Amino acid sequence: MNTTHTRSLSLLGLSTLLALSAGCASTSKPGAPATPAAQIAPATVERQEKLIKDGYVALDAKSYDEALRLFTQAFELSPSAVGQAMIGDCYWVQRKHGNTDPRLLEKADIHYLKALALDPAHHGSNHALGRDLVLLKRPAEALPYLDAADRTSAGSSLASQNLLFRVNANIALGKTAEAEADFARLLKDHAGDWNTYDAGIKLGTHKGDQAMIANYKGAKERSLRQKKLSKAGYAALDAKAFDEAISLLTKAYELNPSAEGQAQIGDCYYPQWELNKSDTRLLEKANVHYLKALELDPKHVGANHAVGTNLMRLKRPAEAVRYFSDADRYSAGSILTAQNLQWRMDAYIALGKTTEAEADFARLLKDHGDDLSTYLAGKKLGTHKGDQAMVAHYQDLLKRWKEERKTAEVE
Questions:
Q1: Which is it for the CA torsion 202, 203, 206, 210, positive or negative?
Q2: Which pTM was predicted?
């Protein structure tokens, strides 16, 4: 939420880079590298990071052969299911961009199968294989992979798309009851999602239900207008045209009310506060919208985290802990996980709860050892404990981190 406009690929560590993939197979719930990160030499990790980063730059530029070369080199440095899935994505993206050659799917699937040989539970590769087999009109073969992906879909950005392809596969097999069950799940868990609208249109067509078709076509059209308004709203926000951003994002929300829509409106106030930190009313106004988001979806990680951070800025750590804890409860797979733990640790320190602060820092070390949030937390905890050696250690790591990012920006 408050970090929406400050995220940059150059600021992400290897673990996050491995989880990113332009909406493709390696997105979300990546399999663990065959060689644990702690056992890979730092120079190798840096080399792999750069290869992956450059690979995505090439993929965005539609330089597919170059992307393949870079991802293959990254995989060879540390073989993993994620690495094979990224190679497979190079073929899938070509199809996504309009190349209808069916051999692209077959080539992609070779690598997704190799990924599953390394990690049979790899969520993205199971989804990708199921998706591709549906597109290749082989629905009976697709379902086992889609089912496997569904079993590991909690918190995944692919969850709704996976259900859409299961709807399509079941319709193709004449399994109307199963298709309706998956569509009911889409309505329950992903009501405002394009995949839900597409599934509704597909199921309505299958059942000959013209009212259902019209309903979901209309919803999809409204969603398209909403997307355009949201895009314009964020452009206004980047230009610091705050009133215009709030107006556009409010109109977007009104087209399709959702927790994310309210959170986006809340995002408009934090950049204003950064420009005028004496006006704490801006934080309170932001929290009005984040709390409205939580009324619509109490599990919304970003809104919980944002309320907590704003309460910390308002010097109300006891209240903040509740929201950080709710964000932590639902944050599996979220890029906010480490930052949320850092903030909750800060809240515990402010409350004099050293034991709880140390527990959160231990989790940061275990799960996010090379993350900026861990370095900041280590320095803060060391200062709180009066441990000068700890402070010096994390100051040194922060200095190195900044130097590495400067070098990366130059390159």
A1: negative
A2: 0.64
